[in-house]
Design a protein that fits this description.
Elements: E1 25-30, H1 34-40, E2 53-58, H2 69-75, E3 80-81, H3 83-88, E4 90-96, E5 106-111, H4 140-143, E6 144-145, E7 148-149, E8 151-156, H5 160-168, E9 176-178, H6 182-190, H7 194-200, E10 209-214, H8 221-224, H9 227-233, E11 238-243, H10 245-251, H11 253-259, H12 261-265, E12 269-270, H13 277-283, E13 286-289, H14 293-301, E14 305-307, H15 319-326, H16 336-345, H17 352-358, H18 365-377
Parallel strand pairs: 1-2, 1-4, 2-3, 4-5, 5-8, 8-9, 10-11, 10-13, 11-12, 13-14
Antiparallel strand pairs: 6-7
Length: 397
């Protein structure tokens, strides 16, 4: 029991006495982090219109939560089960974009990556200070529990990840599905709305928009070059800050906006942590970032990109490693505008090496993910076409 009042849910022993639409398959959406939640927000629309399916959410963990996470999940309009109650019930499908707490739920688990790739680009986990053994997102210790393989479907972005899985956790290979990357597919398909995204951000046709992308941690853009936002804001360009949700979750929204106060006063606009970054990347003339997923998606989808940081140790040949080797570096000791102008003038379109590494099924991810979900649910797929799902309009502070 997690100390919270349980809700009268549409699942469980007494559900038949409460529901209006009966006989639904149950889907639990696990949201241990906002990044996991935003990735799953791209997946849930593939089945949410189906009246045969009932979706409920939960925030795993009883003792420790990221700040603001509960508010985020409730803002989705979701029916949210307290974690203690969620662990008691049986589900036809469990969706997760994290390995956290998945051994405690009951049902067929589909795991997805919450960023670029399932292997991950960082050689060492942030959680293991002083680690000497490289880790991936496909290691036995995160995919099994007491000898049991947890996922019923392990969604991979690329065939090369199968080789990693074969080495790291061969007993889970039979669960693997190479599904490509839904986020990159959506961004590529949404480029036709670029003018609308620029209008939403208040950018005129002849203005230059720069998005500064930051993951979290000391190796990030925000962690290494906080002064960059102020420098850009004095150039006469429009500047948008994209911050990993954990930046505000750990430091607090007020503190982060306070640190950026002078830049905000000069015109910097800050995206909310849960939405808008994809549209901002598409709308931008240049993205300046680090080794994080947002910067990778920018380069792979066709926006001129510059690397602003020294990355942590990366797996050789990983998407982030390819990004930092293929992408020009920003020289912080030189004037910024000539470097921005050069990046725009020299741009030759998407980084195809990176895009081909991010997804082995370009344009097909939604269809593969939906087919896999319905297979786990034991239901025929709907006759309706896949929903059109362009990335949402950006909103800023």
């Amino acid at each position: 029991m997690d100390g919270q009042t349980w809700v009268r849910a549409p699942i469980g022993a007494e559900a038949a006495k409460r529901v209006t639409v009966a006989g639904c398959r149950s889907v639990l959406v696990m949201v241990p982090t906002m990044t996991a939640g935003t990735r799953l927000s791209e997946v849930v629309p593939l089945l949410e219109a189906d009246h045969r399916v009932q979706t409920v959410y939960t925030v795993p963990g009883a003792m420790e939560r990221w700040h603001g996470l509960d508010d985020y999940v409730h803002s989705l309009g979701a029916l949210v089960l307290p974690w203690g109650q969620a662990m008691r019930e049986q589900y036809d499908l469990v969706l997760t974009a994290s390995h956290r707490e998945i051994e405690h739920v009951r049902g067929r688990v589909m795991t997805l990556s919450h960023g670029v790739g399932s292997v991950k680009s960082r050689r060492y986990s942030r959680k293991a200070g002083g680690a000497t053994r490289g880790t991936t997102g496909l290691d036995r210790e995160v995919l099994t529990y007491r000898g049991r393989v947890i996922p019923a479907a392990l969604m991979l972005s690329h065939d090369v990840e199968l080789a990693v899985l074969q080495e790291r956790c061969p007993e889970a290979v039979h669960t693997a599905v190479v599904a490509g990357d839904l986020c990159l597919d959506r961004m590529v398909a949404s480029r036709r709305f670029r003018d609308a995204y620029r209008t939403a951000l208040g950018v005129d046709q002849d203005e230059c928009l720069v998005t500064v992308s930051s993951t979290w941690g000391p190796e990030s853009t925000f962690g290494q070059h906080l002064e960059l936002y102020q420098r850009l804001s004095t150039l006469g360009v429009k500047v948008v800050a994209q911050l990993h949700p954990n930046v505000m979750a750990v430091h607090g929204r007020g503190t982060v906006l306070g640190w950026l106060g002078d830049s905000i006063g000069a015109g910097l606009r800050v995206l909310p942590p849960d939405r808008g970054w994809q549209a901002a990347v598409i709308a931008s003339d240049v993205v300046i970032g680090d080794h994080g997923s947002c910067t990778m998606y920018a380069a792979a989808s066709g926006t001129p990109t510059l690397i602003a940081t020294e990355p942590p140790p990366l797996w050789a040949g990983s998407p982030a490693d390819v990004l930092v080797h293929n992408t020009p570096r920003l020289d912080h000791d030189q004037e910024l505008w000539p470097q921005l102008a050069k990046a725009m003038a020299g741009h030759r379109g998407p980084d195809t090496d990176l895009a081909e590494l991010i997804t082995a099924r370009p344009g097909r991810s939604a269809a593969i993910v939906r087919s896999t979900m319905y297979g786990l649910l034991g239901l025929p797929e709907p006759a309706r076409a896949l929903p059109a799902n362009p990335v949402p309009m950006p909103w800023t502070s």
